[in-house]
């Protein structure tokens, strides 16, 4: 049995995502105490319904399913009409003239990153990522011999540490991957931060035989609060690549529709797009689900009700403050990333579990001493968990002796 798996995959399996571990622990807890008594903040699965018009769009799509090839294979790059419409939307967002040929429609943002890394990474290439970071970035790079290289952000606020990123660049660096709004912190990088990062990158790219890409992972772009507008990334580097999805903005997570946008100003941009189109096919994605593409195309100018998440953020902030938990209020996404009382994130997550509260330790995001809470849940769940947070704080300073989850 020990020879069954690739050693790298076996190692990933042994260090399975804490998010999934907590999800499985939560299922067992629900069976034991009843789902109504479990306060699950572990999984970033958007629960707000898609925009109301989605139902009509789906009915219209269903009326045409009987036509030949209505749900057959589409071009690997995506439905042409969808790419044209998406190019128009992204031209506005990115302050650049974008055409359909600069886009690949992918199986979510994860599919976009994976297809990109397959196209550009060689064994030993490094991908710099600000920490904390979405844990599966390491797997996306590692599948093709890449090495994830985390660089700690500045506290409080989880801002980019530009000096540390600059020092981390080596001849093996192939990409700098930024996620804004950020999972798990909810941080949003400012225009000044991103402009400085682009200038840093331009300096390093001046004398390199292979460029360093600036990759912006933006599935939470639409979920920014207090009037904050996520800055465009394309103006800051000709080697900028944007990946995004409609999982959060339209609550279509299960449809797995995302995209990759290559900067039109990139030298050789057509070659990169062609390569990602090919790797999308050869990795087995083939094309993003066509019904999901059609649905997203007709809803491009809409999004979920941000006011719902805004209210939940306020309730979660109050509950955490009342419990004496230290946190930075998120500017985007639907996550809090507070400090773990006592400093031991595993111990505190275990203390929360004993109160039927599911959270994810910051160790799973490359940042021990913190924990993540997803507030894409009903406000009543957050409210009813308040006493449990307070009780967990009283117990959370004990050293971690092994989890009960």
Task: Report what the structure shows.
A seven-stranded mixed sheet has the order 2-8-7-6-5-3-4, sandwiched between helices. Strands 9-12-11 form a three-stranded antiparallel sheet. The chain has a two-stranded parallel ribbon with strand order 1-10. The chain is built from 14 helices and twelve strands. It has 405 residues and is an alpha/beta fold. The longest helix is centred in the last third of the chain and has 17 residues, at 306-322. The radius of gyration is 21 Å and the shape is globular. It has two domains: 7-51 and 304-395, Alpha-Beta Complex (Aspartate Aminotransferase, domain 1), CATH 3.90.1150.10; 68-298, Aspartate Aminotransferase, domain 2. Helix 6 (137-142) links the parallel strand 3 and strand 4.
- Number of helical segments with 4 or more residues: 14
Distance between the termini: 27 Å
**CATH fold-type name of the largest domain:** Aspartate Aminotransferase, domain 2
Q: CATH superfamily of the largest domain, please? A: Type I PLP-dependent aspartate aminotransferase-like (Major domain)
Question: Which band does the percent of strand residues land in?
Answer: 5-15%
Coarse structural class: alpha/beta
**Helical content, roughly?**
25-40%
Average predicted local confidence, pLDDT: 93
Outline: globular
Q: What does the radius of gyration come to?
A: 21 Å
